[in-house]
Description:
Residues 341-467 form the Fido domain. The radius of gyration is 23 Å and the shape is globular. The longest helix has 29 residues, at 114-142. It has helices at 5-13, 17-20, 32-39, 59-80, 107-110, 114-142, 149-170, 177-191, 199-207, 219-234, 279-289, 309-315, 321-337, 343-354, 381-390, 399-413, 420-434, 443-446, 455-474, and strands at residues 93-94, 100-101, 366-368, 373-375. It is an all-alpha fold. It folds into two domains: 5-264, no CATH class; 279-474, Orthogonal Bundle (Fic-like fold), CATH 1.10.3290.
Amino acid sequence: MEIDFEGLRRRFESLTWADVDPARHPFDPDAVHDLVRALAPAGGVPTPYRYDPVRGYDPVAADARWAWQWAMGEALLENYGPWALGWTSQMGGHTPDGALIVRWNGAQDSITTPDATLDAVAGALLDWRRFLEDLVGIFARHLPLPTEPHAAFAAWEATAAALVATVAARSGADEHWYPVCTLALKWFLDVAEVPGDDHDALVDATIGGQFSSSVSPQGVEVADGAESLAAALTGITPRPDDAWPDTWPQDWPSLRSTEIPTAARQARPGVPPATVPDFLAAWRQVRQAARWADVAGHVDGPARTARDGIAEVLAKRKYDAGRALAALGLVRADAAEDGPLTFARLATWQREVLGVTAAPFRTTSAWARGGRERYAYDAELPSAFEACLAESTDPAVPLPSRAARVYLDVLFFHPFADGNARSAALALYFVLARDGVVLDRAAPLLMTRWPATDPRGAEGVARFVATLIERTRDR
Length: 475
């Protein structure tokens, strides 16, 4: 079955508030689990994904899992209406003990046993519905908006920041939160009866590109995006000396908080920075424990087809595809020279990716997933990262492991203030291309969230890279 994933995305991103407003769509949460079982596609739940080192990647089984997810989604859409399209949006819900959990992470990860799979579908639908109901409460708290321009500016800024922060905090997959955030802002414009019939263009013009990282937004990004939208709607901009403290935990300066000393900034209530797990420390332990030399076999290049999988992923970026592809051109040229992978090289590519004149190593802790993940900083971090990059040429470690390890190094060392996922993809490309390998398919690798805390998970990335290389060679 050929599934039109682009059509599904367009359908989701075209949802209006009338399509999803809980007041217009009656819903019985107690009946969801039974109804999901009644609507489940005939033929049963497909077999779950299991990596087989002998057979490798099984495209037929993978297609069957995605076809089942598509059919399940169509059944929910037919029964509940268009609002149900959000069940795969990966917006999290809370467990009885208060923990945030994403119940559906896509067909490959979430199809397990039949009962658990159907429970996950029902849970994802319930979480999406509760998110929509939460939006109703946010809308009510911020309406009606004042009419006096300066008061309206402050109100719009607060509303936009609240919506962006709410969506980002609920998202369990950092690269997927942005479409839901855009929708929530457009829905509020609709509910607030903002004149004009092109709210898409208004949102894109004011916050488009503000949140370009694959991780949840920094506090400064939330503040500046909210300010941009408020200015566009009211014609008011803050005075240059209108300083205000950054109340998020990230420690990054903003246009309106550069005068505020770091020590004077207030941490977000409920998230004491010292207690947030340090995922970089966890990764460095995992890096030492993983069996890099043993989990994947040695692979020699060349291995490539007419298709370039990483280039395809970068080309699909909404706002900065041209810059990303230009950086990839630099990577190809550097790989042809067969030189070492260094931070200086990464920074050269990153300047092109971000369109900036400098891309230094970060000098403070970095944060992701709404402040729930911390990547700590200390003075020895740049040199430690440089040493890790140097290991990408270690002849004792097979190419798939070296490529996977450097990809995860960039993700978890988080060296730049923005664009680390793109930097990781470019580093992976460089290590492979230097040995004559260009993956013909890379989306399953680049669009999957990999763990920082599990050595077996890290080894699984190496095996997956080996599988992608073998598939490229086969084709």
